[in-house]
Amino acid sequence: MGFSLNFVHPQLKPIVAKMSFFDAFLFYIIHWMDKYEVWHRLPVLLGVAYLGIRRHLHQRYNLLHVGDIKGRKYDTDEYCYRTADGKCNHPSDDRIGSQGTFFSRNMPPSNLPYELLEPHPSVVAAKLLARKEFIDNGKQFNLIACSWIQFMIHDWIDHMEDTQQVEIRAPDNIADACPLKSFKFLKTKQVPTNTTAGWPSKGNNFLMNNTGSLNTRTPWWDGSVIYGNNKEGMERIRSFKDGKLRISDKDGLLEHDEKGIPISGDVRNCWAGFSLLQALFVKEHNTVCDMLMVHYPEFDDEKLYQHARLVTSAVIAKIHTIDWTVELLKTDTLVAGMRINWYGFLGKRIKDMFGHFCGPIFSGLVGLKAPRDHGIPYSLTEEFVSVYRMHSLLPDKLQLRDTNSSSMDECPPITQEMAMREMIGKEGEKRLSEIGMEKMMVSMGHQASGALTLWNYPSWMRNLVAHDIDGEDRPDPVDMAALEIYRDRERGVARYNEFRRNLLMIPISKWEDLTDDVEVIEALHDVYEDDIEKLDLLVGLHAEKKIKGFAISETAFFIFLLIASRRLEADRFFTTNFNSRTYTEKGLEWVNKTESLRDVIGRHYPEMTRKWMKSSSAFSVWDSSPTPTNCIPLYLRPAP
User: What positions does the entry give for heme b binding (predicted)?
Assistant: First the structure.
């Protein structure tokens, strides 16, 4: 681009100069709106248009592939189901998106001159993250929504670790404020990328890095959190009868092995709320099997399992897209935008009647004729991992409710408070068995989660015994707040201001650009002095002024905007193979009729939703009023 306009921020001009004429023109539109902070105050459809433009630019300039592609072509008709390890999803390369492939990136690794311990992670954790008192987020998000994040993370991402340990020692001047004066953990394993040849990519989008990190989970939306990430994990949870998964007949919760570890697809770092959601969707899978047996009696165990997995995985993806995300980003624009992602501008009714036609704008990403990866092989990114660091949502105590209360008009009374430390790992599994599925679900539904803000990181997570991949306790406790700061730096994730520039956002020039809170500004100055470039991403995301209705920062949201669409449009089981031939007619009908987690809970516990859930969504606090949608075009509104 040979010219630029004077109103473009000086630090963004080098990026704009490399854009095509058309992309630069689109950038000028969103940059003008960013300068005046107006996009989220626009009428719904104009706000959606802004997000569409921004997503297009991120698809062009914020998808960078890491590593060689060494897969093979295969017959997609032979693999008309999801494989155990994520292989055979991409239509021309069987390895793309499988377990053990590289994390990609949304921007180049950070090139700032700071050291790994600058400033010291323990200082950042103690002075800016550590919880002073619990701050909740009101009625917007409950503990089910909080647990859902972990449920999804365990479906998508986990870094392979090295065998070499690192030790972090808190400086003497801050040690007394740290629950652990020192702690040890395993480094992230850096693997040679052997980048010698280019995938058919766009310009510089093939990142010539010497090393990268491997994902030990499958990044597809394939339900691996309950099905496992490989053949061994899959076989562990299958009953091999009628296509069903193992679950306790006694209490409807997960079964456990002789060590007390739950039997499920992913058991690392589990807590009772996470196990609860795993059990709920095992029940969903098994109920889908029952439905399929009625309509397709000729199906054997394998066919029932594979079709039920397709259906259940799609239900999970749909709930996250049009239910969980719109509660996280509670604005009319995002309600419309996420439903457009799934159904298109013409809405559910038209898509149900006529199917997918006229492309993604009118009919959504789900049901496209072919997957779209924008020239970059699908995987999840290092930056996506970083913006999903949301442990501040967790409270210090779980409030148990009296589900035997006869009142239908009031929130069930609190009968007991349990320390969250007692709800993790094997001890948490025992507690959950004592509490029971229904009481736990109702209790979590009525308890607000924490707010994603500074000074709200759970104290109990700063002295946490983490788990190995098999669910066993590790020998050394860790300070998760300090560790998360270290992990971003170790993996080369950009710090806050560099991150914003790479996302075509206006960088901050002083602390007052980030927040109006005087106390926060003083604390930031204490830790980072006047060097705004040194600000860690996690701290910046938590300190940033939030858009009304957003539980997360705008900066984090723009990564969500890109990746939420990519998870759907790159997956052939949500595009080419999202049809009755692959899912069965009744299986596809099951997905199409399920609109929310409320639907799933109501399917298995109808009395629970009838008696206790007043809210529109199972992810908002259950005694909150239904959400009005008057400003959303009628054809895009959720069903009442």
Answer: 391
Tokens of 128: 């800016």
Distance of CA 550 to the CA centre of its chain: 15
**Among the options 388, 457, 496, 528, which is catalytic?**
388
Residues 129-173 pLDDT 10s: 999 999 999 999 999 999 999 999 999 999 999 999 999 999 999
Query: Could you tell me the two tokens for 247?
Result: 């679950």
Annotation says 388 is catalytic: yes
Q: Is 604 annotated as a binding residue?
A: no
Residue 109: Cβ-neighbour burial (10 angstroms; 0-12, 13-18, 19+): middle
Torsion angles phi and psi, residue 104, rounded to 5: -95, -165
pLDDT at residue 630 greater than cutoff 70: no
C-alpha closest to that of 124 among 540, 539, 542: 539
Model confidence band, residue 202 (pLDDT cutoffs 50, 70, 90): very low
Strand-pair partners of 142:
448
Query: Confidence class of residue 195 from pLDDT cuts 50, 70 and 90?
Result: low
157 DSSP 8-state letter: -
Q: pTM to 2 decimals?
A: 0.95
Residue 618 CA to residue 606 CA, distance in Å, equals: 13
Say if CB 198 and CB 256 are below 8 A apart: no
What does residue 597 show for φ and ψ, rounded to 5 degrees? -65, -30
pLDDT of residue 627: 74
